[in-house]
């Protein structure tokens, strides 16, 4: 069974619901507990080519709570998991530990992919973060978005690139399933995921063409770094990529999910996609030759309406109701879900999500009732922790 791990970025907010730049202080507390990494330690780690230590099972060892680009963010990372129950337990545990660390400095954490409240983002201290803002200007200075990245194990780069070539057409559906950022600068954007719009300002972000071979993949990475536009390989922000540190495919298209169960559903679907793609590759099924421009439009449409409108159906390239396209995704990965024991959980998660809607729906419902962006944040804090 392929292993899976999840990284989530969370907003740090005060009791009133306003994002506050208290992540460095909260992480100092977490570090003293052995759960977190200080800003200085993380900055040094980012500049090092050395892989992090691992435990006996090959999972990353050490802190699970780390800084992000903005002082209003904390990132968590699960250990390597085999079962979706493990993913759920890890996410609940580390959301709780991040919240406990934030509470020591008078704050909470919320799984929101953007802030409903207008806020001035403050850049985390550190050489790399300062360089990022200097190079990318307003794109880096004003960004305050929280995503979810899912890692799934692959045997080697050959299998990994074959997977990337075959899952790319389905990634916009994952964006639609996790939409959780309808607000920006205190106003409704009209998008279900405005994070996906903001994220695509980065020059290396978005979908890519079929790679074909690991050599072509790594050649492209080297060519991007050689432009001296991105700082290093870590800033190649493809929708999905090979991890530079772990033997995994990393899928990066999703908003952070408001509810833990939606993040677990995402992890199950990504693992199913990776396994399905690997089987197709071994069976000689060619990668779909869909133009990158079409995928960019499909991703835009997914971020615009989420599950409330039409999505681009990867099978036809034509619009179809979101529920129909989501059902097609489940059918596409059903054999892999069955072999990993994930079918029942994924089907139940899809049914629940289609019934109640994504985090974007909840945010708008609260705002329609209250007219108060801060009330949206407070409701999100409760949902983040299962209340």
From TrEMBL:
Q: Where is the composition biased (Low complexity)?
A: 49-63
Which example biological process does GO assign this protein? modified amino acid biosynthetic process
Biased composition regions of type Basic and acidic residues, renumbered to the chain: 31-46
List keywords of the entry alphabetically: ATP-binding, Ligase, Nucleotide-binding
The record ties this protein, via InterPro entries, to:
GCL_type2/YbdK_subfam, GCS2, Gln_synth/guanido_kin_cat_dom, YbdK
Q: Where does the signal sequence lie?
A: none
Look up the EC number in the record and give it: 6.3.2.2
Protein function = ATP-dependent carboxylate-amine ligase which exhibits weak glutamate--cysteine ligase activity.
Its name, as the record gives it, is Putative glutamate--cysteine ligase 2
Source organism:
Modestobacter caceresii
Q: What is the lineage of its organism?
A: Bacteria, Bacillati, Actinomycetota, Actinomycetes, Geodermatophilales
